[in-house]
Amino acid sequence: MALLTPYWGLDGILILSSLMVAAYLFVTRKFNYWSKRGVKELPPTPFVGNFMDCLLSRTSASEFVRDLYEHGKDLPYLGFYIFDKPYLLIRDPELVRHVLVKDFEYFADRNASADEKNDRLGYANVFMMKNPGWKSLKAHFSPIFTSFKLKRMFELMLVIADDLQRYLDSMHLEGEGKVMEFKEIFANFATDMIGSTAFGLKVGSLQNPKAPFREYGRKIFHSNLHRNMEFLIIFFFPGLVKYLKPKFFGKKATNFLRSVFWDVIEKRVKSGEKRNDVIDVLIEMREEYKNDESLKHYKFDGDDLVSQAAVFFIGGFETSSITMSFTLHELAMNQDIQKTLRAEIHDALAKTDGKITYDMIMTLPYLDMVISETLRKYPPLAFLDRVALADYKVPNSDLVLEKGTPIFISIMASHHDPRHFPNPEKYDPLRFTEEAKSSRPNYVYFPFGEGPHTCIGMRLGLMQSKLGVVQVLKDHEVSPCEKTKTPVVLDPRGITTIALGGLYLNIRKITTAAG
């Protein structure tokens, strides 16, 4: 005698069917969350919500959020689902202002989170840290990036810029030149710069692309399935972090960064040397906070301290290398812009007897417009995430966002919105004349974020990027190469905004100021 019917097979079918129906009802129970609140939502798929293409690595996280923006055309916001959890995408610039600036206290934390116990390097750094620790930490790091200290860093950067010059000279680029992949070249260059300026280390990536720092930096952003899934969990579904235990920096890189940075900190303490860099600030913070009970979730020692060095390292090379390589790609595709910029560089060098200076780099107007346009078209980190820390009534609306609601903002989509940037796929630095900038609404261009959570290393990143472009362009001409598709196809497994297969360009040395 079977359990429900005379037949065991029929019983099995009935039980299995009931379980499937129960599972379906469970995972779809919230799928009318936004429609019940009068918010247009993207129709979700059972079990995965709207997240299928990301899970299958068909599209990158950046493009996923950008596509949501396009689906919400002419709307201030759009509801969507990741698995069964309701999320909100914000499109309206005024609401962006409220979330990032005016009502920041409601949205002070990122939605993203690493494992508090098993991944302290990922959990406790200034990028991922929750309040109140984040606010105190940022206040201590901000003085690193004053104009006075940036000028001192610039002198160290010039040494690395000379290394880049020697590297290019060794490639024998006279005549017709040579095809080279520039994302990797600039990643080596930026890794050497951040190692020197922030940590007092001679990394040597330009001389040896397999140098340990470069190898582990490459592993952190390696666009394979495993690293893609780790970042998707951390940024889009942090509720799974404690179960799946992804590592923000990856397992091998975490072990390397812990070992090398702790060694640097201890050697600095022992020597008593002062360089006014990130390591000095970390040592000061360890002393200041060692008995501070108000920051009970952060020890500012061990992994908590090392995590700050680790995040400055990866932030210092990846975003700058993306900016520099995409800038050269667009200059190769737009020879008139390249010639205009080179002429500006040569005019400036003529006034400084051929020496690149901090004041020159930071005051070239066309260079600034070129870099700004690159950051518009290819923002390295292409979306922002926040979480509501308390119930929040959306201004000029009846909508109340419940505590714990994740909020996403697409930087990439805003930067390509034709309402604010006509013909957005065209590369046009003149979008960033003072007149053009003043004619646009606020909070439609924010490559480094906005408000209190703005990237604290923004000025350093811009300085690195401008120096790299000037050092290459003053003596070389770049032109397109068929190895890189046009328009650029982004890597669907890319954590940041990177081109699928790299950015290859033909580069040749020029012999006169006229090129």
Polypeptide structure, described:
The structure is a single chain. 44% of the residues are buried. The model has no long low-confidence stretch (mean pLDDT 91). A hairpin with a 6-residue loop joins strand 5 and strand 6 (400-401). This protein is of the alpha+beta class. Helices cover 49% and strands 8% of the residues.
Using brief descriptors, characterize the structure shown.
single chain, 515 residues, alpha+beta, four-stranded mixed β-sheet, three-stranded antiparallel β-sheet, 9 strands, 49% helix, globular
Secondary-structure map with pairings?
Blueprint: H1 8-27, H2 52-55, H3 61-71, E1 77-82, E2 85-90, H4 93-102, H5 120-123, H6 133-141, H7 147-170, E3 178-181, H8 182-199, H9 212-220, H10 225-236, H11 241-244, H12 251-271, H13 278-289, H14 302-333, H15 335-351, H16 358-363, H17 365-377, E4 383-387, E5 392-393, E6 400-401, E7 406-410, H18 411-415, H19 434-439, H20 458-473, E8 476-480, E9 504-509
Parallel strand pairs: 2-7
Antiparallel strand pairs: 1-2, 3-9, 4-7, 5-6, 8-9
